[in-house]
Amino acid sequence: MAKMSKEYWEKRQHEREAKAYSSILEVEKEYKEALERARINISKNIAYISDKYMKDNRLSHNKAMKLLLGDDYKAWKRDLHNYMKEWKQLKRTAPWEARKLWLEIETLSARSRMNVLDTLRAQIDYELIQVSDKAVQATGKALFAVYGNTYQEVVKDLGVKSMFSENMVKAVIDRPWSGANYSSRLWGNSEKLARVLKQEVATGLIQGINLKTMGKRISDRIEGAKKNDVERLLRTEVNYTMNQATLDGYRDAKIEKYTFDATLDSRTSQICAGLNGETFELSKAVVGVNYPPMHPRCRSTTTPVIDFEALGKQLQRKEESDKLTEEEFLAVRKYIGGQSYALNESLRNRRELSDDYKQWSRDLDKALDKMPKYQGEVTRSIGFFGQKEQLKEFLQIHKVGEDVEYPAYTSTTKGEIYNPDADILVKIKSKSGRDISSMNKEEQEIVYPRNSKFTVVNFKVNYGKYEIEMEEKDE
């Protein structure tokens, strides 16, 4: 059992890492696309200047200092309004960056004259400000979801109650864990790239470099940022967030030790390779020393050190009146262990089950039939982690007087509310929910079989949280 359980934990951690890793790839793609749009816009402006002011495909420093007149100056003033719009947005999302942008706007607005070089520099700033603002917001949402999903899966696997809250997540992702947090790093990368691009422009004009060559240099700089800075930053931040969620789950489950796991990193660094398989005390975990991430793009993770024999004995405490077969017992244990997420997701979306899932469901159905029925109120906490459309869809089908059917197994608790900070709290007057708490003392879990039906009898909102009351529907 100990060996199987250790392999199970390694597999679960690898699945969680892969899930977290894939979630940031969409943000990475959007970030790179935004940088590409910025590159195109800057290149267009260089091409325009090239057509209007160059001679022999070159722009002299004197020409670069040429004042904008007529329509060009009017167009520049219109662009200044775009800066103002961006400033208003940044006031809400990035106050520190907004203050810096405001100083720039004031400086530009105060000028009655503007030269060609100034317009190129200002456009670089403007384009990269837009890129960074959107990237910071998208990254924050993605990291929030990574933490929430990882933490709740870890504590579920460990059989303890979730202590998840939004403040808990913000404290982690906003923490300057290696001198800065994700937001500061994104803005810092943007400022660094802006300085490099403006230097390319200034140097090119002073040296009289061909404008086509200048455009190529700027494109190369942006391509380098897309490949190196974007990937390195986002992939490192997602590894940090996932591992911090795991660490918090260990703490809540009273885990005392963990084992370092570097097997996922295809290009394992020397330091990660040296730590692989090593066991450390949880109280002495330090990021970058003995806890991942250890380096940029790190994909290492950890597994908890558990007394699996003691855990096995605990799980075998069940009602003596209805003995479960070994297959039925293992089906419940597997459900409690956290693999229920994948099974329930398939059932909820009415997908064709694999042969393994079909057998598991059959064994679980038989096991639940043997478990005692629970009478009394049970609760179910549901979090949507900022996914407003899914929350809206759930509320639309849970209206007072309406009947709802859950194609998946439905887990509830008869003890304290599982997660008081969740978006939705469902209360059910149980008469036939199956009591499996003898196999999971921590959660006091009551499970409803698949395809259970309920009637919504009450709905209310308390301090921005939704509360739904339901009754079992008699067949």
UniProtKB/TrEMBL annotation:
UniProt KW keywords: Coiled coil
GO cellular component terms, semicolon-separated: extracellular region
Stored InterPro entries: ADP-ribosyltransferase, Phage_head_morphogenesis_dom
Domain ADP ribosyltransferase: 318-461
Residue ranges that the Swiss-Prot or TrEMBL entry lists as coiled coil: 343-370
Domain Phage head morphogenesis: 197-302
Record NCBIfam families: phageSPP1_gp7 (TIGR01641)
Descriptive protein name: Head morphogenesis protein
